Amino acid sequence: MSTEVPSVLRPSYLYVPTSSDRMLGKSLSSPSDVIIYDLEDGVPPLPADKSNARERLKDFLGGRNFLDPRRIAVRINDITTPYFQDDIAQIASSPAVQTLVLPKIHSPQDLHHVSREIYLASQKTPRQVPLNIVSSVESARASFNLGGIAGWKSEYGMEGGRLTALLFAAEDYCADTSIIRSPTRQELLYTRSQIVIVAKAFGLDAIDMVCVNYKDFDILRDECHEGRRLGFTGKQAIHPAQVEIIQSAFAPTSEEILRAAKIIHGLELAHSQAKGAVGLEGEMIDAPMLKQAEHTIKIARAAGLHIPVIAA
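^ Citrate lyase subunit beta-like protein, mitochondrial, sequence as received from the core. Prediction below:
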């Protein structure tokens, strides 16, 4: 899948541990739309390991790695850890990084704290492009404060970063809320739906949870299709083999594209005849369905998929 597509289609977010040069090197061949270099859970919680990972990533990003900066994100350690300040100072000043993934954001005040550190880093090393921020929803407090988080704006303007997406960290969320995961995922339906609706209300992307059954591709496909039906714009991956399935599942099917093309054509014809609706294969099609069809075609075009021409 092309890395030049707009944000309307950026479905796969692959985590890459920064604990070894080998893993960093392998990321260069990944087709994932976004690669999240992980300084948090992907590194042992020891000061020496955290420091080594940070320096290793700095050298890697500073070299000629040929990755488009729009594909590069870094998950830093959260604001309560002793590693946060060094992470933010180093990563926020890197021109190779366009996106920060922030774990354990519980409130807008947490984002203000991060934004202040981004601003201070930008005063030392000015950025050409503002940092995108992805806020991870992984606690009951975050869920409760979701509207405030999604509506947050930096008091420092673009120099303090801009929020572009909400991400659901299901395992952390379950640990915080005592929710017990089941194969049906029914217990997470409310929170996942809430994240999507709030994200869309504020013009943000919504990134669905990791499929922890990384060797079971049937479960992954099921989760992907469910996430897409709920309105998520993408999904996290923890193994390179998950990427292609995620990309495929979040793109419209040929049947969906054909139906969308028929709806657009049918309503254009109806409008030319001063009609506001038209019948199509037993369904009554009107303005809301036209918006859905146009969105499907927009995604299909971004993915480089074939869009049929409907004859008059």
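The chain is about 45% helix and 15% strand.
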